[in-house]
Amino acid sequence: MNQPARPAADRCPGVFDTHPAADGALARVRLPGGRIRPDQLELLARAAAEHADGHLELTVRGNLQVRGITDVEAVAEAVVAAGLAPSSTHDKVRNIELSPLTGRIGGIADARPLAAALDDALRADPAAASLSGRFLFGIDDGRGDIAARRPDACAVIRAGSSVATDPPLTADTPLVADIVIGGVPVGSATGSEAIVRALIAVAAGLREVAPGAWRVRDLDADSRHRLADLAASSLDPVIGDDPDAAPDVTREPLVGWFDQDDGAVLLGAVVELGRLAARLAEFIAAVQAPVVFTPDREILLCDLDEGVAETVVRVLAPMGLIFDAASPWASVSCCVGAPGCSSAHAPVRDDLMARVQDGDPVDEREHWVGCARGCGSPAGSHLSVQATPEGGYERRRR
C-alpha cells in the first residue's frame, strides 16, 4: 500500500542534532559505505567511553550510534576531529549503502570510488541539505546485495555493451550502471560522473514531485511515475537482463574467515545485541586495518595477512568478537527497548539475551522490537518479534 507524504518534520538524529532518548542523548554517525579508518574508530570509541554509555551501536544502514551521551558537544567535537562529520549542513543526508565486499571479493567492479564520489557530490550540493535524513542511496557492485535492500536511489553496476568483462574491468574502464528507484530500474548511465549525477537527480526529483516525502515509498503511484519519468529523461535504456525482476540474493552471514581476491584475509564478526564495547572497538582499531560495518550489523576487518588474522581471532574472540557464522548473534538483532526508549513496551535487549541463552535454535533472521515503529528492522525478509502493550510478544514474518 502506498503511503502518503509525511506531514511531520524529519527528526532523524545526527551528530549535531541528537535525539533525546530516555537513556540520554543519541547521536548517529553516518559512515558512507560503512567504511571507517582505524584512527577514526579509535577516536569514536574514546568519545563513547568518556561521554556516553561506553558502546557503539551498529545500525541497519552500516552506521554507528552513540547512546546515553552526557556531553553532546564533546561527542560532536570528537566526531568532527575524526573527520566523520565533514559538513554540519549535510550531516544527516550522507546515507549511502555499498556492497560490503566490493573491491575485495567478487563483484563486477570496485564500487568504492563511486561511493566516495557520491558522498563528495552530496556535500557539494546546497540543495541536498534539505533531503530527509531517511532517504537512502545505494551503490551495488553488480552482485545484487544492495539492490535487494530497495534503497530509494540505487546504482547497480552492470556488464553492458560499453563495459567489457573479458578481460576483467580495469581502473580505466568506464562504469555502466542501471539507476534503480525504489526497486524499479528506470535507465542506465555511463561513467562515474554521470552515475552520480543521476542519483543526485533522483533525490532532487523527489523534492520536486513530493516536497513533504521522506522516501520513495512515501509516494503514491502517480508521483512514483512522475519521479521515474524525470529520472529517465536524462538516462540511457536499462541494460540489466531482466529489469523488472526483483533481485534474488541468498545472503549468508559475512562472519568468519574469507580469502580476498588479492590473497589477503578478510575477517567477519558480530557482537551481542549489535553493541560494540568501546574497549573492544579500540582493540579493533589497534589492528590498523580498514574496517567496514555492514547493513546486517557485521564488522569486517579487511586486508589482513594470515598471521595477523590468526592473532586477531585469538585475541579478540575472548573479548566478545564473534567469528562463528553459526552463532545466533549472526541472525538476531533488536532495538534498544525499555528503559532506553520511552515508546517500548518491554526490555527487548534483556528478553532477546534470554532467548539466545535458552539455546533454542535460530532458524531464520529475527528482529526484536519494543513497539510498532520497528526501529532498526532489516530490509529483507525476517521474523519480526514485537512487544505488545498487553505484555508478551507478537511474531510476524515480514
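[next item in queue]
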Amino acid sequence: MRDTALGLAMAAVAVLAIAAVFAVGGVLERPLLLSAAPVVSSGAGGKLVDPEGGPAPDAAPAEVEPRDSLRDTGVDGAASLDALGRPRADRELRRLFDYFLARGGERSPEAIRSALASHLHAQLTPTALATVLAWYDAYVALERDSVALAQGAGGAEAAFERVRALRRERLGEALAQAFYAQEESDYEQARRRGQLRGALLAERDPAERAALAARLQRDAAAEPALQGSAQLNDAVEQSRRFDRDGAAPAARYAQREAQFGAEAAQRLGELDRRRAQWQLRLRSYAAQRQRVLADNGLSQSQRRQRLDALLAPFDPNERRRVDALARNGGLPGQ
C-alpha cells in the first residue's frame, strides 16, 4: 500500500501542477528546432565543469557548493549516434538531460549546461555536440514555457493539447515523439479510461453497465499501469472538485482516505498545503511587483534592482516559473 500511495501522490504532483498550479497560456517564443538537420547551439558550450564536480582540463576549479543531488551517482541516460554520426533523438537523451537538470536550484543554469557539455565533449564531434546542446536548450525552454502554458481555459484536456502542440512546435515531430511519446500515450489511456468510467456511471441499462464494467476490467488486466492511471485521474478530478466547492481540509482528508487510503490522503493533503502556500507567495509578489512598476519616480536601474529584490526569496526553479507567469500575463491580478 505504501508504494501504491507514494506512486499515486508523486504522479498527482505532476498532473495537479499541470492542471491547477503552474501557469497560463500566452505569448510563446519562436521554435528553436524545426527540422532534423544539425543545429548549432547559440548558448555557451565547452569543457567547463565535470559532471562529478571536478574541473575539466584548462578550466578553473569549480566552486564548491553546499548541495549536490548528483553526488555519488552514475550518469543516467546517454547520447548516441546513428550510422552517419548524427545524434539520435531518443528517450535516453532526454534522461541524460533530466539527470543534469536534477541540479536545478543547486547550480546555475549555465553551470548545469557546462557540466553536460563537459560530459559529452569526448563522446561527440563538435557538430554533433552543437546539435545535442541545441536540443538541450530547446528542451529547457520548452519545459519552462510549458509551465506557463499549461493552465488556462478549458481544463486539463485543453492544457494537455496546448502543451502537446508546443512540444512539436519547439522540437519538431521526431524529437517531440522521442521525448514524450510514452507519457502522452499514458495520458491518452487514462483519458479513455476516464471516459469509460463516466459512461458507466451514466448508463442506466443493466446489460450495458455490465458490458462497460467488463471492458474496464479487461483494460486494467491487459495494462496494469492503467489501474494507477485511473486512480490518478480520480485524484485529479476530486482535487478540482474540492477546490471548486471550497472543501475544508478535514472533509478532503476523509474522502481521500476512504478512496485511496490514509497514506495517500496525507500526501495529497500536503500537496494542497504546498499549492496554497505557493499561491500566497505568488499573490504577495504580484502585488509588490505592480507597485514597483507603477512607481514613476524610479529610474530604470532602480526599478530593475527592486524587481530583482522581490525575486530574491524564490529559488532558481521558482524564479523561472514566476518569470514565465509574468511574461505570459499569468500572475494574480494581471
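[queue empty]
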